[in-house]
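Re: the request from the purification team.
They wanted to know what the chain is likely to look like in 3D before they choose a buffer screen. I agreed to run a prediction and write the result into the notebook, where they can find it.
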Amino acid sequence: MNTNPAKPASNEMQTNAVGGWPMLFFNLALVIGAVAWFIWLIVQAEKSHEDPGLLLAAPILTEIVAVILLKGYFTLQPNESRVLILFGAYKGTVRQSGFWWANPFYSRIRGQAQPAGSAGSETSKAGNRSAVQTPGGLSAKISLRARNFNSERLKVNDKRGNPVEIAAVVVWRVEDTAKAAFDVDDFESYVHIQSESAIRHIASLYPYDRGEEHEPSLRESADEVATALKKELQERLDKAGVVIEEARLTHLAYASEIAQAMLRRQQAEAVIAARQKIVHGAVSMVEMALRELSEKQVVQLDEERKASMVSNLLVVLCGEAEVTPVVNTGTLYP
């Protein structure tokens, strides 16, 4: 029995950074001032013929501090953010675009990159990875833009066990940068893997096509399937701080090994449905003809003549080929 409590989810804390341009002017003044201070001390020491000694340590330390401060600058484009991590502790997220300065000791990476060939670092051929990776790991900058993930064509079994090929497009974006950065190893890989898993699961809940039962199907209930897929994806990706904007099927077909058999089945069902409509219409027209003849007293028909008339009308109305009438100039009775 697992007694360890579940790790609480991370929550984003929005924060502001210092404006980059004022800090840049201050930083340049500090660099130039430290150099000028060092030179001035040397000149004064030569004039007085005294050893400056420890006095030179002050401008040297000032120059070192100024150089360190130069590492604190960063820029953010619209719909881009940066998580601020100080010695492993999350300090907040900057979302405003522009030129900024923050503590130079904030980490520029938010995690180690997956080794080449691992499952987390594989990229789907249909979905291009847009995560920024530095040589040491994943960048602390996280894009907030909407992104598309086009899944590969997956072969799965539908509700009736028929193998089908299915693919979908998922439109998503990062909503909570803290969850995306700290609650999953690599949120983009997480989105791709969970999306394919959700597509497989949804495909198993619906039949490919409507059968005898009046139930929703993958082919005829596109909106319902899309809603169910979006809901399941959102449940799976909440822990990564991701919001699903849209999810829809882009490819749906029977697997090649049963495609021909299913095509013949669909053709047979279409023929049966068409025949049912034709027969229903023909019976209605014959009934109307007999009723009109009787009500308007055009002709009086006994049961045998009615049966003959019904037979002839059904042949004319239900036959696929053009009917050639035979004119009877005699009587029906011998």
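For the purification team: The radius of gyration is 39 Å.
Please add any questions underneath this entry.
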